[in-house]
Amino acid sequence: MKLTLRVWRQKNADADGTMSTYEVDGVSSDMSFLEMLDLLNERLILSGEDPVAFDHDCREGICGACSLVINGDAHGPERTTTCQLHMRSFEDGDTIDIEPWRAAAFPVIKDLVVDRSAFDRIIQAGGYVTAPTGSAPEAHATPVPKADADFAFEHGECIGCGACVAACPNGAAMLFTSAKINHLNVLPQGAPERETRVLDMVAQMDDEGFGGCTLTGECATACPKGIPLMSITGMNREWLRATRKAGKR
């Protein structure tokens, strides 16, 4: 395939960015999207140009690092991570726009790489348990109702890629934060911090400058792991519960 790529290029966080156009030939439909970018970078390096900076790690759809907006969609036209998106999803002769996540809380570092450390600080605010769990316990040592276990597993699938923020017209991080809160709050190991977790994590989310949620649903649509929109409702319920409990003390 021969493709026209319009790629966001930005030298550093303080520089102005612009879309640069590249023609790439010899793209196989079996390539992943990141392999196609590797092909572009190999040719840029050989011609003495600066390669396009983009984030990646496992390339197996697990780490969530491959954060790209492709033709206006977070992670591209398929509901998957960018590293698991293959070029068979495009046609010969296509023009593809490639941009970084667009959110005030995710400043651009260079080209397509953004600083997502705001997510780390939200996790540090309460996304953990202090119960001494020791080594892995026996499977049935701590009884957990199946509905709760399924709920926790569903929310535990969040990989923190930030697609929810990139897709949200308000740049909100509610889906990510709610997934991390709901994952732990429903388990007995997370019970000691149940109230402080939601209060602290929501407060940190607000401090990071993410936008407000208006339940447009774009976050859940873009999520490659299928975190449900109802997760936000669950977090709101936890926040109200914790707020009322704190007010009675």
Major β-sheet strand ordering: 2-1-5-3-4
Query: Count of helices?
Result: 8
Sheet with the most strands?
5 strands, mixed
Estimated structural class: alpha+beta
Question: Strand portion, in percent?
Answer: 5-15%
Please, could you describe this protein's structure?
This protein is α+β, with helices and mostly antiparallel strands. It contains 8 helices and 7 strands. It has helices at residues 33-46, 117-126, 146-156, 163-167, 174-185, 194-207, 218-222, 230-247, and strands at residues 3-9, 18-24, 69-70, 73-74, 95-99, 108-110, 113-114. The strands form 2 sheets. A 5-stranded mixed beta sheet has the order 2-1-5-3-4. Strands 6-7 form a two-stranded antiparallel ribbon. A hairpin with a 2-residue loop joins strand 6 (108-110) and strand 7. The protein is elongated and about 65 Å long.
Task: Provide a short characterization of the protein structure.
The chain is an alpha+beta fold.
Question: What is the topological layout?
Answer:
Elements: E1 3-9, E2 18-24, H1 33-46, E3 69-70, E4 73-74, E5 95-99, E6 108-110, E7 113-114, H2 117-126, H3 146-156, H4 163-167, H5 174-185, H6 194-207, H7 218-222, H8 230-247
Helix pairs in contact: 2-5, 2-6, 3-5, 5-6, 5-8, 6-8
Features of this protein?
249 residues; alpha+beta; five-stranded mixed sheet; elongated; two-stranded antiparallel ribbon; 11% strand
